[in-house]
Amino acid sequence: MILPASPMGCPVDSLLRLLMGPWTTYILYTLQHQGPTRFGALKRLIPGISAKVLSERLKMLEHAGVIFRQQKASIPPQVTYGLTARGDELRSVIDALEDVARRWAAEDAGEAIAAAEAAAAE
Q1: How far is the CA of 102 from the CAs of 11, 94, 98, 108, 109, in angstroms?
Q2: pTM greater than the 0.85 cutoff
Q3: 32 membership: H or E segment, kind and range
Q4: pLDDT at position 5, please?
Q5: Interval 78-104: pLDDT, tens
Q6: What's the pLDDT tens digit per position in 27-69?
Q7: What are the structural domains of the chain?
């Protein structure tokens, strides 16, 4: 696995640099929940991503050993992407981040409702 270099030599920073790329966490999240997925289906599951960016991110993740690319010789070629063992190791990290994100969103929504009710009461 080739992680981006960290200027400080911190391994966590190196991993986060890999994950921070545009669309990267969304791609991993989708593959985690959908399982191995063909390119076209993956593009449809990630609204707003261009084919070029999806292709670039998939190549980067494959190069890092996080996902695999399986091509079936057919016309047109059938290319499927999925998580490798290393990508599967990120499952608990992605799940934990999802839990925090959902909890924070609920807290923010509760605060927004409370603020709206307070403003309406004035």
Answers
A1: 27, 12, 6, 10, 10
A2: no
A3: helix 24-34
A4: 67
A5: 999 999 999 999 999 989 988 999 999
A6: 999 999 999 999 999 999 999 999 999 999 999 999 999 999 9
A7: 11-89 (1.10.10.10)
